[in-house]
From TrEMBL:
<keyword id="KW-0460">Magnesium</keyword>
<dbReference type="Pfam" id="PF03454">
    <property type="entry name" value="MoeA_C"/>
</dbReference>
<protein>
    <recommendedName>
        <fullName>Molybdopterin molybdenumtransferase</fullName>
        <ecNumber>2.10.1.1</ecNumber>
    </recommendedName>
</protein>
<dbReference type="InterPro" id="IPR038987">
    <property type="entry name" value="MoeA-like"/>
</dbReference>
<keyword id="KW-0808">Transferase</keyword>
<comment type="pathway">
    <text>Cofactor biosynthesis; molybdopterin biosynthesis.</text>
</comment>
<dbReference type="Pfam" id="PF00994">
    <property type="entry name" value="MoCF_biosynth"/>
</dbReference>
<feature type="domain" description="MoaB/Mog">
    <location>
        <begin position="171"/>
        <end position="310"/>
    </location>
</feature>
<dbReference type="Pfam" id="PF03453">
    <property type="entry name" value="MoeA_N"/>
</dbReference>
<dbReference type="InterPro" id="IPR001453">
    <property type="entry name" value="MoaB/Mog_dom"/>
</dbReference>
<comment type="function">
    <text>Catalyzes the insertion of molybdate into adenylated molybdopterin with the concomitant release of AMP.</text>
</comment>
<dbReference type="InterPro" id="IPR005110">
    <property type="entry name" value="MoeA_linker/N"/>
</dbReference>
<keyword id="KW-0500">Molybdenum</keyword>
<dbReference type="InterPro" id="IPR036425">
    <property type="entry name" value="MoaB/Mog-like_dom_sf"/>
</dbReference>
<keyword id="KW-0501">Molybdenum cofactor biosynthesis</keyword>
<dbReference type="InterPro" id="IPR005111">
    <property type="entry name" value="MoeA_C_domain_IV"/>
</dbReference>
<dbReference type="InterPro" id="IPR036135">
    <property type="entry name" value="MoeA_linker/N_sf"/>
</dbReference>
């Protein structure tokens, strides 16, 4: 590991995001399923009025003139009604186009039918054309996150695709001879928990995550080969383990070997400080997640999720808030990311080698450098993608 001073945590988040944003792929028209989770690259404009025609809000009778009204057929949703004559009524379904000439609708439950005539209180119980939007109106500005309701509205407003930034392809490369992919941990060897877990977090953070690679043998040659294999079909490769200076920690040497340059090399955060972000000459990213499983997740939260947000054209992921139910110690000059539940209590089993606390957490309470958290205090909460 080259000797650089760890970057302050808040700055590391912003640096990772800015690197992603600057490298975001050109916006293209993407089908909804691929656009969701990105940001609009152009304003979303209504292709038609919304509703495109007056639409009944109730099941009832559309009427014209003075009652009682003579019943003349029915109009269902999806049909085009004929114009309504004076003193006539047509049975109408919720969502059906209101006939021209209609002056009111009587709700079915308020109507009385007798001898082919209907009577009851009529009101304008329909949605006017263009009530939600008029043709050509900008519904959302460029940069708006494409959430599921934005997709729904885009469909309602007549679109089939959205101009947005494609999901970055990602691969996870798991380093470590000591790792097992089946059975129980034994004889100095432990089950790989990161290969099965991290891709789901990447998916939740907006990536198209391919299957994990590894465990990779603890030699420099094997590390370099695995990195090259992963980079061949990924925009971002997340490695796990090997970030430190142990006898078989080859990540830094492998990065040098493939000519990658550091964007971030260590972050002033506990746990997780050996995390890093590097970039290859052809602009692909490599995130080095520490091997301790909770530390690896902290690297996803701190560097990878902001990077992916930038690559999708989104703003830096906002932090939530947590009201601490108990005191939380600081970590000197480092930011402390402390697992808390929804009530603001610290979770047991929160060691950096453990996932048990994380699995039941609301997120990481952020205790800044040279600070401590006090019971009752509201602090920022770093959210874990997919949790
Ligand atoms: N001399 C020092 N040693 C260590 C320091 C230090 O400052 N000085 N920092 C510690 C910290 S903090 C961390 S975090 C780890 C980072 O280690 P590496 O990224 O090099 O990871 P490994 O050594 O390969 O593994 C650490 C630990 O995690 C287990 N592990 C690794 N990968 C997986 C996986 N896919 N699934 C489950 N568990 C995994 C591995 O068995 C080790 O127990 O360095 C400390 N050391
Ligand atoms: O940074 Mo290590 O991640 O404290 O366990």
């Amino acid at each position: 590991m080259t000797s650089t001073s760890p970057l302050p945590w808040a700055e590391a988040r912003e640096t990772a995001w800015a690197a992603g944003y600057a490298a975001r792929p050109a916006a293209v028209e993407l089908p909804f399923a691929e656009a969701v989770g990105s940001a609009l690259a152009a304003p979303l404009v209504a292709v038609s009025d919304l509703p495109a025609f007056p639409t009944s809000a109730v099941d009832g009778w559309a009427v014209a003139g003075a009652g009682p009204w003579r019943i003349d057929g029915e109009v269902l949703a999806g049909q085009v009604p004929k114009a309504l004559g004076l003193d006539q009524a047509v049975k109408i379904a919720t969502g059906a186009q209101v006939p021209e000439g209609a002056e009111g609708i009587i709700r079915l439950e308020h109507s009385k039918v007798e001898d082919g005539l209907v009577d009851g209180p009529a009101a304008r119980e329909w949605r006017e054309a263009g009530e939600e939007a008029v043709q050509g109106e900008a519904l959302f500005a460029a940069g708006t996150p494409i959430s599921p309701p934005v997709v729904g509205l885009a469909a309602a407003a007549g679109h089939a695709t959205l101009p947005s930034h494609p999901r970055p392809a990602t691969r996870v490369v798991v380093f470590g001879d000591e790792l097992l992919t089946s059975g129980v941990s034994r004889e100095g060897r432990v089950r790989d928990s990161l290969g099965p877990m991290v891709p789901h977090m990447l998916t939740a953070a907006g990536a198209a995550a391919g299957p994990s690679i590894g465990p990779v043998e603890d030699t420099l040659e094997a590390h370099v080969a695995a990195l090259r294999e992963a980079l061949a079909d990924a925009d971002l490769v997340c490695t796990t383990g090997g970030t430190m200076v142990g006898p078989v920690d080859h990540l830094h040497a492998a990065l040098a070997e493939i000519g990658a340059e550091y964007v971030i090399n260590t972050v002033a955060v506990r746990p997780g400080f050996p995390m890093l972000l590097a970039r290859t000459k052809d602009g692909k990213f490599i995130a080095g997640l520490p091997g301790n499983p909770q530390s690896a997740v902290i690297a996803v939260v701190s560097l990878v999720a902001p990077l992916l947000a930038g690559l999708r054209g989104l703003a830096l992921p906002p932090l939530g808030a947590a009201r601490l139910a108990e005191d939380v110690p600081g970590r000197g000059g480092f930011t402390h990311l402390a697992l808390v539940d929804r009530a603001g209590h610290r979770l047991g089993h929160h060691g950096s080698a453990m996932l048990r606390g994380l699995a039941g957490a609301a997120g990481f309470a952020v205790i800044g450098p040279e600070q401590a958290g006090a019971a009752g205090q509201t602090v920022e909460l770093a959210l874990v993608p997919g949790v």
